Amino acid sequence: MAAEVRAAALKRARTDAAGVADGARRRILELGRSRRTPLHFGSALSALEILAASASVLRPGEDDLVLSKGHAALGLYAVLAERGDLDPRAFLAYGRDARLSVHPHRGSSPATAFSTGSLGHGIALATGSCLGRALLGRSGQSHVVMGDGECQEGSVWEAAAFAADRGVSGLTVIVDANGFNQNSSLAGTSSGEGLAAQFAALGWQTSVVDGHDAAALTGALLRPVSRVPHVVIARTNKGHGCAQLVDAMPGAHFTSLPGE
């Protein structure tokens, strides 16, 4: 019976995540077309299924999410609005008031555990959160959403090595591997499989999935892991859902949406 209940819960989470990501993508594109101002559309659109899958399995009040690639905050807010965890009117004011700023700050939304924006700190922050819960005898887990370009920061690997050495359980990193950093392609310098190998060499459990397949992401996030941290390499397309943005990479990191 327990296995049947878990299977039913997994099916619901997978279905919910896919629908939430689709709805969040519509919200972002509608906002962009009404504003015609430059925003971080590409990074937000590539991360939507990741954020939706994470939100579908995290438990409010027990778990936390660290959006290490803080410039994708538009994607996080769209997912929260689609889930009913954020007032849609607040989402429409994104970037225009102090609450929903371009980079998230602690308390700006129900899912913002830390202020982020300066890249390379998410794993360290989440590791501290996991260790703190362990000291207090509390259960819970931390998800970190970060970019493959961000993995060029040395602090990422310092924190990853520490987390593995300490056997930090309850820590999951999801890498939005969209193949670009801010201004250039990562082709020839970084790949999903290469990043997985680097994490594995440090002692992390690894998964590599299609980052736009909400079912695959949800399954990976619910995968039983041993007492080591877990990394999910999610292969994505920057600007996914807007062909003009995809075709304009890498020059469309921070841009307005193309006209109809």
Automatic annotation (TrEMBL):
<dbReference type="InterPro" id="IPR005474">
    <property type="entry name" value="Transketolase_N"/>
</dbReference>
<dbReference type="Pfam" id="PF00456">
    <property type="entry name" value="Transketolase_N"/>
</dbReference>
<dbReference type="InterPro" id="IPR029061">
    <property type="entry name" value="THDP-binding"/>
</dbReference>
<comment type="similarity">
    <text>Belongs to the transketolase family.</text>
</comment>
<feature type="domain" description="Transketolase N-terminal">
    <location>
        <begin position="62"/>
        <end position="244"/>
    </location>
</feature>
<keyword id="KW-0786">Thiamine pyrophosphate</keyword>
<protein>
    <submittedName>
        <fullName>Transketolase</fullName>
    </submittedName>
</protein>
